[in-house]
Design brief:
This is EF hand domain-containing protein. By secondary structure, the protein is mostly beta strands. The chain is about 0% helix and about 30% strand.
């Protein structure tokens, strides 16, 4: 876990969970945190250990993340 970062809301709903290397563990999480059905939290497991390695937050949902941090940004996937 890393320092906590701001998201659009507190109600996390995973829109996409993907296993990009077919090892049976999720590597990509795309989530909505404010309930509008649009993605604003993007997380990636880049070393395939099952833990979030990088978090991107798109606060204004324009397709360009404003925040990028190492780790889960205080928003660990369920």
């Amino acid at each position: 876990m890393s320092e906590s970062v701001e998201t659009r809301g507190d109600d996390r709903r995973d829109l996409i969970k993907g296993d990009t290397d077919n090892d049976g563990r999720t590597d990509v999480w795309v989530s909505d945190t404010d309930g509008d059905g649009k993605a604003d939290l993007f997380q990636f497991d880049t070393d395939h250990d099952g833990e979030v390695d990088i978090t991107l937050v798109d606060l204004d949902q324009d397709g360009t993340p404003e925040i990028t941090v190492d780790g889960d940004g205080g928003h660990a996937p369920n």
